[in-house]
Write a structure and sequence with these properties.
Elements lengths: L1 E6 L11 H8 L4 E6 L12 E2 L9 E2 L1 H14 L5 E11 L2 H7 L4 E5 L16 E4 L9 H12 L11 H4 L17 E2 L2 E2 L9 H19 L1 H5 L5 H13 L1
Parallel strand pairs: 1-2, 1-6, 5-6, 5-7
Antiparallel strand pairs: 3-4, 8-9
């Protein structure tokens, strides 16, 4: 996979050279380039923003440097691209979107700042995406979050190929509780079923706990979940016992 990031703060993305994403780059599972679109300005002051027509508070990112930066990216890396604009008004990012992004050969993220973009920038993009109903100072941190979530679904990035499938949201449910050694820590004991060696009992316990946690913390996830008959029966039993 090839990822290009357009930002006026390229040094923020040094964090992507660490941990699993850094190792994925070393293994050449992903290539990540950061393009400073300030370098493509045509004014002497190197300004990338200007006041909006019609007045109003704040400044807008201009179309020209972003268009020219995208022309540069296209010449350097020709081919079909999924172009993601970080926008608080965009669709909310989720696991399904991360899976979808992971299927692409080329991803481009355009990071905003100030009060937003000249509307004409949106003609360049395929997706307008937000990470939640709150405002940050720029699109850099959301971009890193989305890249991290997306790369977990790229084969070879995670050490355990089943990890991404078993985590919260992957199957529409929150993740079940997990424990490690010691079995008794300061009087807090691991549930006996997990040390029983009975794989079927462990599976049922984990599924029940995932359903219970989802019902308690994120019942909205269950409304649209495609539950199996087994999950429906367990959920009914949980509701009866509450």
């Amino acid at each position: 996979m090839d990822i290009t990031i357009l930002s006026i703060f390229p040094r923020m993305f040094q964090a992507l050279n660490e941990s699993l994403i850094g190792k994925a780059q070393e293994k050449e599972l992903v290539n990540i380039d950061v393009v400073d679109f300030r370098a493509f300005t045509t004014n002497k002051q190197n300004h990338v923003d200007d006041a909006p027509y019609g007045g109003g508070a704040g400044m807008l990112l201009q179309a020209q440097p972003i268009y020219d930066a995208m022309d540069y990216v296209e010449k350097k890396k020709p081919g079909k691209k999924r172009v993601v604009l970080l926008d608080p008004a965009g669709k909310t990012f989720n696991t399904a979107m991360a899976r979808d992004f992971a299927q692409e050969d080329q991803l481009v993220f355009i990071c905003g700042h100030y009060e937003g973009f000249d509307e004409r920038v949106k003609d360049l993009v395929t997706d307008e995406v937000s990470i939640g109903d709150y405002i940050l100072t720029g699109g850099e941190l959301p971009t890193m979050s989305m890249i991290d979530a997306t790369l977990r679904f790229v084969p070879g990035v995670l050490g355990n190929s089943f990890s991404a499938e078993e985590e919260s949201f992957s199957n529409g449910l929150l993740e079940y509780p997990q424990y490690s050694r010691p079995a008794d820590f300061r009087g807090k004991k691991v549930p006996e079923v997990l040390t029983s060696g009975d794989h079927e009992k462990i599976r049922l316990w984990r599924l029940t706990q995932a359903l219970k946690k989802t019902l308690e913390r994120r019942p909205d996830l269950l409304e649209g979940a495609d539950l199996t008959d087994e999950e429906k029966k367990l959920l009914h039993k949980i509701r009866q016992n509450n």
